[in-house]
Design brief:
This protein is of the alpha/beta class. The protein has a single domain, classed as 3-Layer(aba) Sandwich (Undecaprenyl pyrophosphate synthetase). Helix 2 runs parallel beside helix 3. The protein starts with 5 loop residues before the first strand and ends in an 8-residue tail after the last helix. It has six helices and seven strands. Strands 4-3-5-2-1-6-7 form a seven-stranded mixed β-sheet, with helices on one face.
């Protein structure tokens, strides 16, 4: 099986899931922590070298206070869960904002946890606008672009898996996603199942990976 070297994860549908369960919207985020851990272990098992989880963006901070607190707490707990594993963690986001969790500051430079291994990136209080604005007038090569952008330690993404049925990037690493294949899952993120991951890998086998060539 051809395994994507780098998988991007957009774990959407937390609020809609909570509503479907008769809960307030803010309650949905905590139910996304365990699916993230399970997906991490599957990526590790199958030899994926890098995985990037979409936490929240600066745009998301416009949401009500109870929801902001809930998704910030969920992000902190998600990073702490993976920090107990063998991984290399990086958190990318606007660290100058008061909405960036101070508990995660040490991960703004890649940190080796346990024996190291799979790279795990979290986009937390991330701004796609600032990432694009950080581009310099270099030679335009992939090497130059990766060096100059804020998310410079995150590599090009092979496949993005989107939960929640939406067909949009929502600002997810626009530069690294330039040649990504998109696999959309209609189920909400808290309803994550192992089969969804393997269905995505099976689908990836059918894609013609040319990178424009």
């Amino acid at each position: 099986m051809r395994i994507p070297r780098h998988i991007g994860v957009i774990p959407d549908g937390n609020r809609r899931w909570a509503k479907s369960q008769g809960m307030t919207k803010d309650k949905g985020y905590s139910y996304g922590i365990d699916p993230g851990y399970k997906l991490f272990k599957l990526c590790e098992k199958e030899g994926v070298e890098e995985v990037t989880f979409y936490g929240f963006t600066t745009d998301n901070t416009k949401r009500p206070e109870d929801q902001k607190k809930a998704f910030i707490d969920a992000c902190i707990k998600s990073v702490n869960v993976i920090a107990k594993e063998n991984a290399e963690i990086l958190v990318v986001g606007n660290t100058t904002s008061e909405l960036f969790p101070r508990e995660l500051t040490k991960y703004t430079k890649r940190v080796r946890c346990g024996k190291g291994g799979i790279k795990v990136n979290f986009l937390i209080n991330y701004s796609w606008k600032k990432d694009l604005e950080s581009l310099s007038c270099g030679d335009g090569t992939e090497k130059s672009l990766n060096r100059d952008i804020i998310s410079n330690d995150i590599s090009r993404i092979d496949m993005i898996i989107i939960w929640g049925g939406r067909r949009r990037l929502s600002g997810f690493l626009p530069i690294q996603s330039v040649y990504s294949d998109f696999y959309v899952i209609d189920e909400y993120w808290p309803d994550f199942q192992e089969k969804q991951f393997y269905d995505a890998l099976d689908w990836y086998q059918t894609q013609d990976i040319t990178l424009g060539g």
